[in-house]
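Working notes for the structural subgroup meeting. M.R. asked for a predicted model of this chain before we commit to crystallization trials. I am recording the input and output together here so anyone reviewing the notebook later can reproduce the run.

Input as submitted:
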Amino acid sequence: MRAVLCEEYGGHENLVVREVDEPGDPGPGEVKVALATREIQFSDLVRFKGEYQVSSELPFVAGGDGGGEVIAVGEGVTRVRVGDTVLSPGGCVERVVVDERSVTPLPDSIDLDAAACFRGAYQTALLGMQRADLQQGEVLLVHGAAGGMGLAAVDIGKLMGATVIGTASSDDKLAVVKEMGADHVINYSDGFREEVKALTGGLGADVIYDPVGGDTFDESMRCVAPYGRILIVGFTGGRPALAKTNHLLVKDASVIGYTIGGLSKHRPEQARRNTQTLFSWLASGRIRPYISYRLPMEQAVDAYQLIVDRKAIGKIMLTS
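Returned structure, recorded in token form:
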């Protein structure tokens, strides 16, 4: 079977698609899944460089969640049956054997691509809104709003009753952000502070969702509202920023860092509840992941290049 592998640390251009041994029959409590679609994300690029928070032993499979069909079950498996459609970890491979507890059965009403691409981004966005205690009627400023993490935050922010301001670097990206429900959009190539202040009557944003970091975070510190909260989601801008504590003190503001991995590790029951909530919203159409590209596994390098070149809007999927 085929797999997209990172065999040496460096850039995504070093990825290779190889024929590897197919996993055997599932053991007790395990299931075997044939994946049809797989998500990729910015954090993969950090993993390829060996700079992620948790290092991966070489060689490792690129990518994250995938969607597919259960083709075999081991002894004692009760949650799924052969033929069920599921969301599964495994990355950019054709077939995986995993613990049955790690797969999520999907109702027929959920699109397989949407399910496979939404969990990481939407779990991150939902947890962020919980950590920031976002309230109905508050102003939510979402940076990098056209990316997978950003569009998820726009989607959930509107669902929770916030007034959403989305920033992005081009007009075509902003058009999608607006389509996804943002009340206001800003091209932040030339800054955003003054527009945010103007849109909020001089107060600033109550919650700022920042997957960019760097200069974007620095400017966010100057347009956060009194008692506002800045969520640290990532550093796609290239560098972590340093929070000036005197600014936080004057604004009575907070900076909040978090990860969904930390939630799963330290508060697994909340992680399970959040997943159930998100699947309920997805099945009912209350949230709608945006997919801009679907490419075959053989074009994995090209797919990651779209992320590097900032051409991706929402998510990119690798198909069979």
